[in-house]
Amino acid sequence: MDTPTPPTAWERTTTRRLLRWVFRWQTVRSSLIALAWVVTLIALLYGEENWRGRRAWNKYRQELEAQGAQLDLQAFIPPPVPDEQNFAATPFVMSWFPRSGGGWDDNYSKAAEKLPSQDTSRQQFLDLAAWGTALKAVEAGTLKSYRHIDTGKPDAESRTQAAPAVLAGLQADEAIFQELRAASLRPHARYPVIYNLDNPWGILLPHLAKIKATCYRLRLRACAELAVGQSDRALEDLKLLLYMADSLKNEPFLISYLVRISCLELATQPVWEGLSEHHWTAGQLEELQGRLQRFDLLNDLSRPRAAERACIILTAELLYRQKYRLSELAEPQSGLSPSLWGGDFANLLGRIAPHGWYYLEQVNACRFYQNQSPGAFDPVQKRISPRLLAADAKEMEQQLSSQILARLFQPVFAKFPFKAAAAQALVDQAALACALERCRLAEGRFPEKLEALVPRFMADLPKDALTGEPYRYRRVTDAQFLLYSVGWDEKDDGGVSGKTQFDEQGDWVW
Questions:
Q1: Above 80 in pLDDT, residue 271?
Q2: Is the separation of the CB atoms in 324 and 289 below 8 Å?
Q3: What is the pTM of this model?
Q4: What's the pLDDT at 144?
Q5: Residue 56: what are its φ and ψ, rounded to 5°?
Q6: C-beta neighbour count of 496 within 10 angstroms
Q7: Is residue 156 within 8 Å of residue 277, measured between CB atoms?
Q8: Residue 157, Cβ neighbours under 10 Å: how many?
Q9: How far apart are CA 24 and CA 425, in angstroms?
């Protein structure tokens, strides 16, 4: 009788028994059925999410479009302009493009390295004595011997003595200023930006820094010209500065809007200096006042905000098409806020997410854009309510945890109403100060009340966007007045400012 062969060690292992069970027909059949169910459930989930998201987005988009909202970024791109009608078609401006192109390489650039940055948080005279010293040192080739230059001599006599050296140091730029001034007579300004809609956040805007650099030079020239009594030349430089700021008005980006109001802030410096020392004539003041009263910065903010909304909508579609990764939107160069959505996990989630989720992100981002209490930000009525904006921001913060794009873009949108309100207050007050000075020149003293300016010196009084009422005004003496807005805290502190001219606490004082 044959003795049964004992099982080998391999045949006795758990692994072999498991493999035999796994590859049994019954097991394979059950696994295939389970896999088919899983695939079916995933397909149903994706189908349902895609249907739900697409339906929600189409419905919401139709509602917005019925209200006149423009959701296509292409519609915000400035149309082409013939060169002969285009300010930006002048050779100096064209040299700014591409990004590595030309710009300013002059005495101002060298002198600025040795000067402390001008503190714009308070109204103060430019230190023309320091600029004169620095520019003369550049001409003499001795600038390197200075560690820094800061004279601290803002008095009228020191500035008058230093102004000729400042103007001489900037004389080499005269040909460029003449070129820009001639080009500013053209009816349009359309910079040769390449609007790549497959990568809207990668659009290069090299002209923004160059425009601001130009405005810094014009500000310094105008202040020096005022110091030596050349108010007519100062006015021409100031008009060019205002034109440079306004050349950005039709651009669709919030960063262009921000640079524009920064340039307007620079323009108010020579306005203020000329008023402080009574250098402007009545005719010059009337022209300046008219130009300043044209600015409607709250209403002008509506277009770039709507364009940024269109960018968000496009970004959601580009994310779905894998033109972007979520982590790239949080990179510093994107201009957006870093968040927990950066990283490889987020990128993986972005690749496997249903299309419907991207539709829902578009809905959520647009609702975030629209979600403002009545009166919180009303560009038509020129009103801003910091209290309502703060309440809206608190409410939105509680809703942002599951909204990727809205959470990324929230800091971008949040800061601009404050910027717009402060800039509008500044140009309004500058226009009012011009009207007040015209009244003083005509009648020998400032008026008792602002209402006395109407209609001889001003058709209507501008309203403070934070209160809807005229700006606060008090005549201190026949030759001195106090003019202010109640500021972002919406409290009248009697003309006492905060730590800076435009702080979140205290009044905004001219």
A1: yes
A2: no
A3: 0.86
A4: 85
A5: -65, -40
A6: 12
A7: yes
A8: 10
A9: 81
Q: Are 308 and 413 in contact (CB under 8 A)?
A: yes
pLDDT in tens, 143-194: 888 888 887 778 899 999 999 999 999 999 999 999 999 999 999 999 999 9
pLDDT at 181: 97
The kind and range of the H/E element at 481 are strand 480-485
| CA proximity to 200, closest of 70, 95, 65, 335 | 335
Bin 417: left if φ > 0, else alpha if -120 < ψ < 50, else beta: alpha
Is the preceding omega at residue 98 within 30 degrees of 0, hence cis?
yes
Both tokens assigned to 191: 């910079």
User: What are the distances in angstroms from CA 417 to CA 54, 376, 384, 506?
Assistant: 32, 10, 7, 17
Q: How far is CA 107 from CA 104, 117, 134, 163, 166, in A?
A: 9, 16, 9, 15, 10
φ, ψ of residue 477 to 5 degrees: the values are: -140, 180
The Cα–Cα gap between 326 and 344 comes to: 9
Average pLDDT, rounded, for the chain: 86
Residue carrying structure tokens 């919180």: 376
More confident residue, 90 or 328: 90
Secondary structure (3-state) at 466: coil
- Do the Cβ atoms of 50 and 354 come closer than 8 Å? yes
Q: Alpha carbon 422 to chain centroid distance?
A: 13
Report the distance separating Cα 347 and Cα 324, nearest Å: 9
Q: In angstroms, what CA-CA distances link 333 with 106, 172, 230, 282, 365? A: 28, 35, 43, 47, 21
Distance CA 161, CA 174 (A): 21
- Tell me which residue of 321, 365, 358 sits closest to 71, measured CA to CA: 365
Strand order in the sheet with 480-485: 472-477, 480-485, 508-509
In the chain, the amino acid numbered 27 is: T
* Residue 15 banded pLDDT, cuts 50, 70, 90: low
Q: Is the pLDDT of residue 342 over 60?
A: no
Most confidently modeled of 273-287, 355-369, 494-508?
273-287
Residue whose C-alpha is closest to residue 206's, from 122, 72, 346, 102? 102
Grouping H, G, I as helix, E, B as strand and the rest as coil, residue 122 is coil
Nearest Cα neighbor of 216 from 266, 169, 181, 166 is 266
If phi > 0 it is left, if psi is from -120 to 50 it is alpha, else beta; for residue 189 that is: beta
Helix (H) or strand (E) holding 364: helix 355-370
Distance, CA of 417 to CA of 384 (rounded, Å): 7
- What does the domain layout of the chain look like in residue ranges? 83-280, 302-412
Closest CA to 217 of 246, 241, 242: 241
